[in-house]
């Protein structure tokens, strides 16, 4: 595990964007695993800036996102598809037909999960996975549980996750109670993982995830077992 200390959010974002752009420059057809939330917004901003300067070309890149709320259409402003369009896909020269997010409106959840796993496999797996972490240690929407969920699955969101995401929706009732998330297996099979953590109130859970016991009660703790994990953080 490599830990890169950043001065602040902007510095963290620039350092993470550096790793991603190096990946894309070296391997233009990379499969990027992408994340949503407030942590990666600055990273995407930085990538867009470098794209506008002509430094990074996304035309060959394919992407798979970690998760999506169940019940939200991609055009819904709170959907993760919309988030990705707004913060990255609509601002760079990526082929949007090669950007994938679970379908929040899928009628058959089981079939949707199978489809998403097969899709990741058909892309040849993930070259670089960008991750944030939730206050309870979740990665993607892999919530604390009794076992690590290996494959894409439908999750009942924990009350603390609903609470944390209420800031995007206005009130807790509007936050979907379920979400699709990529499983631990797809995340762990990514060739490279970049975990970004900025907010000070996550310092404790980050410590637990990186140095505590590897347990599904802290889903992010599995990352200790990954052979190529880089943590970029400005927490103390
Ligand atoms: N599903 C997402 C995660 O992928 C993200 O890492 C986490 C942290 O979000 P933030 O970066 O906004 O703190 O929240 C959400 O629940």
UniProtKB/TrEMBL annotation:
Keyword set for this entry?
Carbohydrate metabolism, Hydrolase
Q: Name one GO cellular component term.
A: cytoplasm
- Under Enzyme Commission nomenclature, its number is 3.5.99.6
Q: Name the residues annotated as catalytic in the UniProt entry.
A: 67, 136, 138, 143
* InterPro entries found in the cross-reference section: Glc/Gal-6P_isomerase, Glucosamine6P_isomerase, Glucosamine6P_isomerase_CS, NagB/RpiA_transferase-like
Query: Which reaction is this enzyme known to catalyze?
Result: alpha-D-glucosamine 6-phosphate + H2O = beta-D-fructose 6-phosphate + NH4(+)
Question: GO terms for biological process?
Answer: carbohydrate metabolic process; glucosamine catabolic process; N-acetylglucosamine catabolic process; N-acetylneuraminate catabolic process
**What GO molecular functions are on record for this protein?**
glucosamine-6-phosphate deaminase activity; identical protein binding
Q: In which pathway does it act?
A: Amino-sugar metabolism; N-acetylneuraminate degradation; D-fructose 6-phosphate from N-acetylneuraminate: step 5/5
Q: Which CDD domains match?
A: GlcN6P_deaminase
Cited HAMAP family = GlcN6P_deamin
Q: Which family does it belong to?
A: Belongs to the glucosamine/galactosamine-6-phosphate isomerase family. NagB subfamily.
As for what it does, the entry says:
Catalyzes the reversible isomerization-deamination of glucosamine 6-phosphate (GlcN6P) to form fructose 6-phosphate (Fru6P) and ammonium ion.
Protein name, please?
Answer: Glucosamine-6-phosphate deaminase
Q: Which organism is it from?
A: Youngiibacter fragilis 232.1
